[in-house]
User: Which sequence fits this backbone?
């Protein structure tokens, strides 16, 4: 198939010219096939990889009516970890209540990533169900981004939630006065 | 011991068929690949390890970023028919008239960032001129003139009309954007009872 028709066949007897012997001038297709497959690979990968990644975020319903009193849901303070996101990629977090933190859970600074907040979260994802004695009652993380936090900080911390498989987390925007002190410390 | 004689065949294989198939596939992938259009508002998205892909249709993207030193919000909907229908609704609301040619031209714009008053000029422009500096100031989204809110509302309506599906929303924010700017958009979506949306992110490994 990939031979060039050199005209030897059927050309005999005419003119009686001396022709070189039939030498099946095959074209080497190897390079062409190589190139074709290379391009295929390129296009296959770019079509599926160029789709942007995304992160699902579900927020609770907003209470639009200001007169309607919010129902107070009592949450076991042993389950909650509050993370405050501050300026310049700073984090402050505490476990339990601010006034009465759980053991090793007093307010402290941390950083994003593997060496920072992730260690603490992974520890608590395991320890909280043991403390409460109920598998359903796992860790609850409350994320409080301050005004000086960047969008990257928010995505980073949400990403930590996904990596650590935190069962429940919420983004809360109001910061009570006691926590505001911590915020001011960070956002000086 | 009789040696098994190998027949003296040439070792080269006929590659024609393979070459045919390879080029057929190549053509297929080239044609299905969508050319990347330049974004009017380029943003540097933060990265995450989550690997969910954005849907291809029924999606509106709100781009929040900084260009020329100003915070800007751009808006885009997937689907030409949806865009047309959304503009139809917006024209009614803002009492403007668009010709069919203008509607068709608008359907080709992926993302835009102009107030309603400047939309006609934007449609009339050439494709290459639209991305020039200073042409698109962003969709107004403050409390006095909240056109973004209307765009969100009417493109949802338009998507239900055209595709009979609820429109999904994606927020594509620049990593350096401050949280209140993003929160403003989230609040706007939540005011319309959209509590579930996507944040567009890049990809990274787990060990950062």
Assistant:
């Amino acid at each position: 198939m990939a031979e060039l028709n050199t005209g030897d066949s059927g050309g005999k007897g005419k003119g009686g010219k001396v022709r070189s012997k039939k030498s099946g001038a095959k074209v080497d297709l190897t390079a062409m096939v190589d190139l074709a497959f290379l391009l295929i690979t390129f296009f296959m990968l770019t079509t599926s990889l160029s789709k942007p990644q995304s992160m699902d975020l579900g927020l609770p319903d907003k209470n639009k009516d200001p007169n309607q009193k919010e129902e107070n849901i009592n949450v076991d303070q042993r389950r909650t970890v509050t993370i405050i996101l501050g300026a310049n990629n700073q984090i402050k977090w505490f476990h339990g209540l601010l006034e009465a933190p759980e053991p090793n859970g007093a307010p402290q600074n941390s950083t994003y990533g593997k060496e920072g907040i992730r260690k603490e979260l992974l520890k608590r994802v395991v320890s909280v169900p043991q403390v409460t004695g109920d598998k359903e009652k796992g860790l609850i993380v409350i994320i409080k981004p301050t005004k000086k936090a960047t969008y990257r900080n928010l995505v980073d911390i949400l990403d930590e939630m996904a990596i650590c498989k935190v069962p429940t987390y919420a983004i809360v925007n109001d910061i009570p006065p006691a926590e505001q002190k911590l915020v001011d410390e960070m956002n000086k | 011991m009789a040696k098994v004689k190998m027949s003296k065949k040439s070792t080269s294989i006929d590659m024609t068929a393979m070459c045919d198939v390879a080029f057929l596939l190549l053509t297929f992938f080239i044609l299905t690949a969508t050319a990347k259009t330049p974004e009017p508002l380029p943003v540097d998205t933060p990265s995450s390890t989550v690997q969910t892909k954005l849907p291809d249709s029924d999606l509106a993207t709100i781009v929040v970023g900084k260009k020329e030193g100003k915070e800007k919000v751009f808006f885009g909907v997937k689907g030409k028919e949806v865009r047309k229908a959304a503009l139809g609704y917006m024209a009614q609301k803002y009492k403007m008239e668009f010709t069919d040619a203008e509607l068709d031209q608008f359907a080709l714009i992926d993302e835009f960032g102009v107030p309603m008053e400047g939309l006609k000029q934007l449609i009339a422009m050439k494709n290459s001129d639209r991305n020039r500096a200073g042409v698109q100031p962003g969709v107004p989204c403050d409390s006095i003139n909240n056109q973004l809110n209307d765009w969100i509302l009417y493109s949802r309506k338009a998507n239900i009309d055209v595709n009979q599906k609820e429109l999904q929303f994606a927020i594509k924010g620049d990593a350096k954007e401050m949280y209140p700017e993003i929160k403003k958009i989230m609040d706007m979506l939540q005011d319309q009872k959209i509590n579930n949306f996507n944040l567009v992110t890049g990809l990274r490994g787990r060990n950062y």
